[in-house]
Design a protein that fits this description.
The protein has helices spanning 7-25, 30-50, 132-135, 220-232, and strands at residues 66-68, 73-83, 89-98, 105-107, 112-120, 138-144, 150-157, 164-166, 173-174, 179-183, 187-193, 198-199, 206-207, 213-216. By secondary structure, it is an alpha+beta fold. It has two domains: 4-50; 60-219, Glucose Permease (Domain IIA) (Distorted Sandwich), CATH 2.70.70. Strands 9-5-6-7-11-3-2-13 form an eight-stranded antiparallel beta sheet, with no helix packed on it. It starts with 6 loop residues before the first helix and ends in a 10-residue tail after the last helix.
Length: 242
């Protein structure tokens, strides 16, 4: 299956491959015919390979509260930091680097409702650069899980990737593992979650979009009870009202 974001590019490359093939067979010299045929076949093969879109299904026990990898690739960072875009507080950030050989179709990391959506133009630092998530061209998408937990995820362009595409917006209800877009060629995906989310992956691990569980979100009942207890708690030594 080919990703829909690649239809136009695949059509253009196919047309060029046909023209190169016709031109090659009109040449008598194999000195030129061989390279032209190799360029036609190789270019088309790489394009089809890059825009492949295999079916992915999240584990059945993770469809409700699982945090699913939104991209194929290698985990290059797991760090604690502050977020002031959507979660507004301390977060754990997981950064996944996609090489040109990885599947580049991106998937929703958890079920919920999209509450935040921004596209930001920017620079094109290499995708693994520490400042790439702040300076590079990127999309920023925030969803609220039914438990109330917020999840922020970012498509980040790299030094080669120059086109980000996504197909969700504020108000959309989404499912874990659902396709939502693509970053063409080498790129990076960041996932930011609050500290109470239990992450289950390690730096250096290779993950698969829509299949690899990278953490667990709380149950809705558990989160509601925690908020209720926090609201009901009052200091025992509060001064009396005169």
């Amino acid at each position: 299956m080919i990703a829909r974001e690649g239809y136009v590019i695949v059509a253009i490359v196919t047309g060029l491959a046909v023209l190169l093939t016709i031109g090659a067979w009109q040449l008598d010299a194999w000195l030129w015919r061989g390279p032209l045929l190799a360029l036609a076949v190789g270019g088309l093969a790489f394009t089809l390979f890059f825009f492949r879109d295999p079916e992915r299904t999240p584990p059945s026990d993770a469809e409700q509260n699982g945090l699913i990898a939104p991209a194929d690739g290698r985990v290059v960072e797991i760090v604690d930091e502050e977020d002031d875009l959507y979660i507004n507080g301390p977060v754990q950030r997981v950064s996944i680097f996609l090489s040109p050989l990885d599947v580049h179709v991106n998937r929703i990391p958890a079920r919920g409702v999209i509450e935040y959506e921004r596209y930001r133009p920017g620079d094109y630092l290499v995708a693994w650069h520490p400042k790439a998530s702040e300076k590079n061209e990127r999309s920023e998408l925030g969803l609220r899980h039914p438990s109330g937990t917020k999840v922020l995820f970012k498509q980040i362009a790299g030094a080669v990737a120059r086109r980000i595409e996504y197909h969700v917006g504020e108000g959309d209800t989404v499912a874990a593992g659902q396709r939502f877009g693509i970053v063409k060629f080498g790129s990076r995906m960041d996932v930011l979650v609050p500290p109470h989310v239990d992450l289950t992956l390690e730096k250096g691990e290779h993950v698969r979009a829509g299949e690899t569980v990278i953490g667990w979100l709380p149950d809705a009942d558990t989160t509601d009870e925690a908020h209720a207890e926090a609201s009901a708690t009052t200091p025992s030594d509060a001064p009396a009202t005169p």
